[in-house]
Amino acid sequence: MYRLGIDLGGTNIVAGVVNENYEIIAKASCKTAVPRPESEICDSMAEVALKAIAKAKLTLDDIETVGIGVPGAVNPKTGVIEYSANLFFHNWEVVKMMEERLKTKVSIENDANAAALGEYLAGSAKGAKNAVAITLGTGVGGGIIINGKIYSGSNYAGAELGHMVIVKDGKECACGRRGCWETYASATGLIALTKQTILKEKLEYSYMLKLCDGDINKVSGRTAFDAMRDGDPTAKAVVEEYVSYLACGLVNIINIFQPDVLCIGGGISNEGESLLAPLRTIVERERYTKHNDKQTLVCKCSLGNDAGIIGAAYLD
Fold first, then answer.
1. How far does Cα 78 stand from its chain's mean position?
2. For residues 178 and 169, is the Cβ–Cβ distance under 8 A?
3. Which value, in Å, is the radius of gyration of the alpha carbons in the chain?
4. What is the full DSSP assignment across 72-91?
5. Cα 121 → chain centroid
6. What is the distance, to the nearest Å, from the Cα of residue 20 to the centroid of all Cα atoms in its chain?
7. pTM
8. Is the CB of residue 302 less than 8 Å from the CB of residue 115?
9. ∠ CA(141), CA(228), CA(222), 5° rounding?
10. CA separation for the pair 117, 309 (Å, rounded)
11. How far apart are CA 110 and CA 120, in angstroms?
12. Who wins on pLDDT, 156 or 287?
């Protein structure tokens, strides 16, 4: 039998058919196009699910379970998305609506939790007993696996690691607090820091701005890293400041959970050792267990965007 995982994101909806070896054998996708009614998004999810199944030359009868990874506070017991800022919904009975469309059992989970499960089953955390996966995107997503199970807390909204405060009275976060880790360590935070630094420079001398064809609106999460590799000292300072914020949160997580593996995903993780090497230096210096023989492995997530699909497909 096969399983199907759906990754419901703020930009794209992606469905994948997953076999018993945790391999995706077929995928389909469409734009999420929010805001729009819940029913329309469910229609789109059902459509891409059926397209993926057809691409795999299977039918719904061949699919054992369907799982959906969703950003926000999700209650797997009730099948309700209680709150999702990126999708603009409250108390959405998504499981009920999807089961009506697909006529099969459907499960839901927070997308970062689903991605962490995917990495645990088939990626960088495979073989670990306890693991944490961090996703650096619009925000900072977090998924925690303890003894092989997703940890989500008593109200199913645990592992919101991006919303621990690392700067008291710091920058305002979309959640309403100030100084949240994701405000500084997300791709959004890096882009904001890069733009802020460019504006402080004399613009005609800004190498980072030159890489963006003189248009500050073209700044991305890669801009500072690319300029740093080209030898720009200002970009190097931006990267170092960003890495210090990211490391601050990682050390907190390691000190609290002591995972076997902490893997980092999202677009910024594609910087590889340009990101990971300085991160490890700070982590090794600041972690509480610096004198222990066994240490947390800090590495890049290996499954990319497929982690959420695989994890969603294998939700219990």
1. 23
2. yes
3. 20
4. SEEETTTTEEEEETTTTEEE
5. 16
6. 24
7. 0.91
8. no
9. 35
10. 10
11. 15
12. 287
